[in-house]
Amino acid sequence: MLSKAAGGRPAKPSFVSYVSPEEIHIREPAGKEVNPYLLPGELLLCEASTVFKYVQEDGSNRGTYGKLVCTNFKVAFLGYESASDDNEPQFKNKVIGESDITLHCIDQIYGVYDEKKKSLYGQLKKYPEKLIIYSKDFRVFHFCLRCTKEEEVKRIVSGIVHHSQTPKLLKRLFLFSYASAAPNSPDAKNRTVMFDTFKDWHEELERTKGNVKYEVVSVNEGYRVSEKLPLYFVVPKSFLKSVTESILVHQGRGIPIWCWSCHNGAALLKMSAFPKEQDDSALQMPKLLDGIYKTIHAPPYEVLKMDDLSSSLPSLQDIQTAYTRFKQLFLIDNSIHFWDTDVKWFSLLESTNWLEIIRRCLKKSVEVVEQLERQTTNVLLIEENASDLCCVISSLVQVMMDSYCRTKFGFQSLIQKEWVIGGHSFLDRCNHLRKSDKEEAPVFLLFLDCVWQLVQQYPPAFEFTETYLTVLSDSLYIPIFSTFFFNSQHQKDTIVSGESHNAQSSPFRLLTVWDWSVQFEPKAQALLNNPLYAEKPKPDKSQRKTTRFKHHRQLSLPLTQTKSSPKRGFFREETDHLIKNILGKRISKLINSSEELHSNFREFYDSWHCKPVDFHGLLLPHIEGPEIKVWTQRYLRWIPEAQLLGGGTVAIATKFLDVMEEVQKLQKQMDEEHSQTAPEDADAVPTLRNSARLSSLFPFALLQRHSLKPVLPTSTWKDLEDEEDLAKRDDEFVELSGAD
Amino acid sequence: MLPTAKSSFKVRQQEPGAGQPRGPKFSSANAKRNRPCQAFPGIPGEFVLEAAPGVRRSLGASLRFDSILGTLFCTNRRVAFVPDVPPGAKAHPRCSFLHSEYDVALPCIGKLVAASSVSKAKVLTASSSLKFVPEELVLYCRDFRVLHFRFPESGLEPGAFRVTMAIARAQESDRDVAAWSDPTQLRNLENAQRSPEEEEDPAPTLLFESLQDWEQELRRLGPAGWRVSVANERFDMATSLPRYLWVPSQLLDNELKRAFAHFNQRRIPRLCWRHPGGSDLLRAASFHAASDPEKEDTRAVEALLLAGHARCVVVDTVADLPSPTEIQLAHVRLRTLCLPDPAVADEKWLSALEGTRWLDHVRACVRKASDVAVLLAERRCSVVLQESDDRDLNCLVASLVQLLADPHARTQLGFQNLVQREWVAAGHPFAQRLNLCRDGDRGEAPVFQLFLDCTWQLLRQFPAAFAFAEAYLLALHDSSYVPFFSTFLFSCQWERSRRGQHRAFGQLYTPVNGWRDAPNLKILPQASCSAPAGGGACLPSIWTWALHYSAQQRAQFQNTVYTRASDGHTAPPGCSKLKATLSETGAVFLLARGALAPQPHLFPWKNGSLVKKGPWRVPSSDSLSDQQGWPSSYPALLGEVLVPACVGPAIQLWRRCYLRGSPERQHGLFPPTLSGLTEELELLQECLNDGHWRAAAPPSPAESEEAGSPLSPSR
């Protein structure tokens, strides 16, 4: 009866360790009380018992019974039968369990009513018999509520829908209840530069040798200039003195803010464009801008080129649409859907346009790199708020050009600099508060995906692995870290200071995502590091760089001269025109005629790819059609059909780790022999070896325990077995027992 | 037994007679033609037709790319480019056979395009006349390489013109690939090649031309219940079948002979492989249309199909897989797509790739093979692959199944044995499919290349399971287009031996005319090409890699990530018993479109009549491993099977093979990282050992550990 309703299919006996819907009356969960593990500050909001969770929606009814709970942090499923210990996953998140979904991670909720799937939102009149939750990290959960008591169903469904879908106040974020309840752990020494102090910026300037022409300013202390701008930022020297008053009027718009300096002195700058409506102040604008360009266009600064990203890159709306479509390819209800899509997989993939957007971002970044590296021009990225695509492009350029950004801490510092402090509106773009869908756009994910392309093209150049990127993308939805839950530094500072006043307890401290020990044990953390990353020996660095650089200079010097001199004049004459365009937000291919840009780009790109790769030097991605790929680990990790037992890149990684371990051991022995001392600090090397056949989805393989997916769906075997004459059974018996 | 009789059947020494008319003629032609080109190290029997010095070979179409200066040769065998050695640099000892990225065998040239700034590019054939002096020559090779040669701008235009025309004519005229080289001297050269490094070949590749090869391989599989039949030794039962067949041991040869007539091309079911769990994989052609089970005695056929099992699953290979024509079509489209100057924009690349349907075909093959492999592991039954003539996709599926299920097939030797057995000996019509002779394009279909692509997919998905690396597959892929090796020249063993025999005798009597088309093959059987041939000659087998790949290149064939499979792979006791008798009829199932269906009649079904078009995988809630009452089969053994993923994102383009033509797209060909690590390991170990030596320390536990470690690099 139950199973008939479940899909018209005859009920199948379940997998060995699970119970089928029929057996529920026999196996009453009485006495087996399961309690959710709650974080500090986490409150249980509602729960429902005897919920049936399908193991994987492959069309079978296999699953397990348990309790479904909803807290102010997550939705969690607690099985009555605890998984046996040997199945303990090696890569376990300490905060989020295997069947936990944080409220912010819930993407869509569907209810099934009489075989019909309906999206659930708002006030519900009727409660579904099956609940399907799609999460933003691409898991799909199917819960059957038929055996659950009616009032519990009501409570849990409306609870989940309410807490995950309705708009929230910023102050109600779990972040704050966690921070006030959690014991204040001593602040671990973190090498990630947070860029919230004057010193951090200053050091960054020194590191990139940009301190000759640029300086850190503190005009925005107390957020006097702008709430969008960080407390400290870097501008061309003596720039602010000339134009301070007008800057104040425009709330920081029109200030070219330094991002990064190239080794040849060229700098990458970003600027938020002026809003479309300019009334009275519009008159001062030309004068102001003229001042700006006079300052930074003239020596000692390099020639300035502007790039309006809103005209050369897809809009946020496009990005959001593409991602929504792309995502849908991987959020599959069951495997049968997947079979249908393989034949047209590539065209489906292409029609989402997501990979094309990645390609365009990478291409744009290569263009900027070309201007910085070869033409030695300053590049000014312009965008409305300078906090979306500006972040993507400037970060990508730095990842490509600055090998420091390819180390783990360098990368984290980069995200901190360009995104967190740089004012990317994480709260709006991720729609954490569920306030409006219009602002939502996966810009940060786009950036991570672009970095992934680089990582998979040049694995030895990066200190971190793709697993690191995947985990980082997941952390976007874990509301115990402050990193990705504010729109700006200002917003965070004001709310934190407000909370601290209220709490009046010990200093209120929010966790940062860069403290990976909150989420992972050291053993699991080791999987985030690339064993093949070869650190660059320090003394070698400067030497090689200069020679390489010289070579480049020689190559590009005549080119630069011939090309830049006419441009200077051009630029000057056209300033008025240019300014009009900025005001009208219609900058397009003004500075660079597109053909010239294209040929420059091609030449640069091709000549770079003809040379052997220096993993510590400039790194350009391949951007041709076949080279932009799907981030398999992130998007396919929960899909059983994509899983390979004993295969995938994990198999190579395992081997690598083995060899590495061996090398390290031998090196240690060598050291011991020389020094006769025995240092006993064993590095945490993940022991992948103890499980003989890992799944290709390894760190995430949820399905490891199910020995093998069914390959041949046949009812015929069994039926025929039954029909087969009894005379054969003896034979059969002998045969099988013999085989065991 | 018979082989000994055969071996006395060797060709009488006809070589001098064959060699005579050629040698002087060519050497004189050679001598008077090109004085400066004598430096060209040719294969014996090869002579230079035309040469143009000062040619630049560039990596891409435009001047942007770096180029190499050298001399372009057109010989009667190939187009070769010899880079100039800069004065002072040590001259590269260049071996004439070595596979080189600069050389193209003439049959491998797909398209020849001459371009000039004054005229538009022109595709050249033998009959076409060139009206301009080419400035650039582009060779589109059938193995997906693209070679660009740029001629010097001044002074040597006639040379450019001449060499271009020579190539255009040569590529057309070189039809008889079997006459590719003079075997006698090849033999010497081969020996010369091999002697310095003294092959480390303890177990040569089995060519499956002799009885002991078949027996040796059957011993490896576990011979119980099977024997080698010599029924077809004289090819009188079936011409396209190999000499020796594996058949159930209880079936006598005279019973067996009755079965031949029931199958297309008389290709009866015979064993391919035995699963250690007791299942058997067989392959057969479809039932002959004229055979009628009602009237005739089909017991022999039944016994062959059931092979001693109670159940037999017939796998209709054709059902879900592309036909050779479709494969060829997809391959042509793929080649067009992968040209270096793509007409396809980057953003349309993926759908264009899908449009070729090549990956679809790859997917279908991999999926079918994995279904069969799992079936073999899960059940005790006989699985019969059935294709209408059992010569194309059966080869592919049978070998893929073995790659998935048999760890031995994933070693280099095992793989070579596999190709030799399931393709070469089993009679895949290579001559027609590869079409190296260019006699009509009708039968051309890269079925073997499709197999290599499938193998690459498996290698990519299971990098640690294969002892060979991508470079090996690439080498095999490229070598299949070089008609220098006997392996892929013939369509079956019978043709191989017949041609050898025929030509040999023909030559004895008509030595003058004979030379042109005589392959001078040594008459079979021959245990192995590497065996001392006693003056006899033959084209080398492709497996003598030392002949055409340098030691350095061959070192890359090894997969450094390979983890040897645990060798607990012996047959469980008791499963070797064959209980079914000849008269017993068993149940027959049909596997098609991913589902098993019972077959009411054992036999026969006509070609294709049972295939109904439908959706690929029938949605079904239950599965083999899922059923209660059916004791879970052999989970341990199932664990040994590689189960590949066939979903859309899992099947990828073999870019190192297909995208080689585009300079922008080739990068990091064989990342040396792991080998670098291994080297470091070696170095450290040596250092450590040295240290021990000097310190005269007793062997530490570390050393013994090293010895036992599977990772200690093999030397």
From TrEMBL, chain A:
Species of provenance: Crocodylus porosus (Saltwater crocodile)
Lineage, opening ranks: Eukaryota, Metazoa, Chordata, Craniata, Vertebrata
Keywords, in A-Z order: Cytoplasm, Sarcoplasmic reticulum
Gene giving rise to this polypeptide: MTMR12
Domain of life, source organism: Eukaryota
Keyword Hydrolase: no
Compartments, as annotated in UniProt: Cytoplasm, Myofibril, Sarcomere; Sarcoplasmic reticulum
UniProt-recorded name of the protein: Myotubularin-related protein 12
InterPro entries (UniProt xref): MTMR12-like_C, MTMR12_PTP, Myotubularin, Myotubularin-like_Pase_dom, PH-like_dom_sf, Prot-tyrosine_phosphatase-like
Protein family per UniProt: Belongs to the protein-tyrosine phosphatase family. Non-receptor class myotubularin subfamily.
One BP term from GO: phosphatidylinositol dephosphorylation
Residue ranges constituting the Myotubularin phosphatase domain according to the UniProt record: 195-635
Keyword rRNA-binding: no
GO-annotated cellular components: membrane; sarcomere; sarcoplasmic reticulum
From TrEMBL, chain B:
InterPro entries given in the database record: MTMR12-like_C, Myotubularin, Myotubularin-like_Pase_dom, Prot-tyrosine_phosphatase-like
Compositional bias segments (type: Polar residues): 1-11, 182-194
Superkingdom per UniProt: Eukaryota
Gene Ontology BP, a term: phosphatidylinositol dephosphorylation
Record-level GO cellular component terms: cytoplasm; membrane
Domain spans labelled Myotubularin phosphatase: 208-658
Positions of region (Disordered): 1-33, 180-203, 694-715
The family this protein is said to belong to: Belongs to the protein-tyrosine phosphatase family. Non-receptor class myotubularin subfamily.
PANTHER family: MYOTUBULARIN-RELATED, MYOTUBULARIN-RELATED PROTEIN 11
Protein name, per record: Myotubularin related protein 11
Organism listed in the record: Crocodylus porosus (Saltwater crocodile)
Classification lineage: Eukaryota, Metazoa, Chordata, Craniata, Vertebrata
Gene name for this UniProt entry: MTMR11
